[in-house]
Amino acid sequence: MDLSGKVAIVTGSGRGLGRAYAEALARNGAQVVVNDVDAAAEEVAASIGGKAVIAPVGSSETAQLLVDTAVEEFGRLDVMVTNAGILRDRVLWKMSDDEFDAVINVHLRGTFTCARAAAIRMREQGSGGSLVLISSPAGQRGNFGQTNYSAAKAGIAAMARTWAMELGKSGIDVNAVVPVAATEMTRTIPAFAPLIEESERTGAPLPAWVRRDEGLGSVEDVTGLIVYLASDASKGVTGQAIGIGGDRLALWSHPAEKQVEFADGGWSAEEIAQKLPSFTPETYGIPAPVAP
C-alpha cells in the first residue's frame, strides 16, 4: 500500500483515531495535513513530517484553509478523511438546542464543507481521489443518549452514497467508515465502557471474544482500512459503509425494503392495523456485549 506522492488531510487528527489515521497514512508514504482545535495538531504534524492546521471544522473557511494548505505545502490533494468530532450526550428531553447544533455542526456540516472543498480541488486536478467519511455504529443502529451524534453519523453514511453517484465520473471514490475502537468517545457508549475500563484497570488487552464478536480493539486496528481506501488498490470501491474494529471487517447493508404487501386501491388505516403486525420488525440500538 505505497502512498508515495499522495497528499491527505485528516480532520480531528491531534489524538485518538484521527491521530492513528494520520500516522498510518504517513508511514505508508503520504504527506499529511493534520488538523485539530489545539496544539496537539502541531505535535502530530512534527512527528510525521506533516503540516498542522489548528482550526475547528464546520465552516467553509476552515475547509478551504485545509485544502489550500495541502496544495500550498505539498502541491495537490488526493485524500480527505473527515474524522473530527465532539460529543454532547443527553437524552432527548434534556438535550438543548446548543448541544444538538454543536454536534451537527462539527460532524455533519464539517464533513459536508470539507468534502465539498476537497471534491472541488480533486475535480480541478482531474486525477480522481478518495473521500473517507468517518461514520459510527450509532449512525447505523442508534444509541441511547446520542440523538445529535446518531443523526449526524447516519447523515454521513447517506452523504457517502449520494456523493459516490455525483463524483463517480470524476474518479473520486466516496466511502463511509464505521470504526469501533477503545477511545475516549467509545468510552461513553454504555455497551463498551465497562470493557474498556476493565482493560485499562488491569492493563490486559481486550479479550479475544471482544475483538472478534464485538469488533472492538485498539485505534491501530482501524488504520488498515483507512490506508487501503487512500490507496490505488481501492479504486472503484465507492458508495459503501465499511465497518472495522478489533479482528472484525464488515460491510454494512444499505437501507432497503424488507417486506412488501399490496392492496388494490391503496391501504386504509384499518387494513394497515391488520397487516403491519405480521411484518417482522427491525432491531435497533447497539446491543450490549455478551461474553461467551
Task: Characterize the structure shown.
The chain is of the alpha/beta class and 292 residues long. The protein has one domain (7-251): Rossmann fold, CATH 3.40.50. It contains ten helices and eight strands. The chain has helices spanning 16-27, 40-48, 60-74, 97-125, 137-141, 147-167, 193-202, 208-214, 223-230, 269-275, and strands spanning 7-10, 31-36, 51-54, 79-82, 129-134, 172-179, 241-245, 248-251. It is globular.
Q: Tell me the overall shape.
A: globular
At CATH level 3, the topology is Rossmann fold
CATH superfamily membership? NAD(P)-binding Rossmann-like Domain
SSE order, one letter for each helix or strand: EHEHEHEHEHHEHHHEEH
The helix count comes to 10
Alpha-beta classification: alpha/beta
C-alpha termini separation: 36 Å
Structure summary, number of beta strands: 8
Strand fraction equals 5-15%
What is the class in the CATH system?
Alpha Beta
> What strand order characterises the main sheet?
3-2-1-4-5-6-7-8
Give the CATH architecture: 3-Layer(aba) Sandwich
The largest pleated sheet is described as: 8 strands, mixed
Radius of gyration: 20 Å
What is the domain tally?
1
What's the helical proportion of residues?
40-55%
Q: What is the subunit organization of this protein? A: single chain
Could you name the ranges where pLDDT drops below 50 across 5 or more consecutive residues? Answer: none
Family: Belongs to the short-chain dehydrogenases/reductases (SDR) family.
Domain Ketoreductase: 6-183
Protein name: Dehydrogenase
Pfam families: adh_short_C2
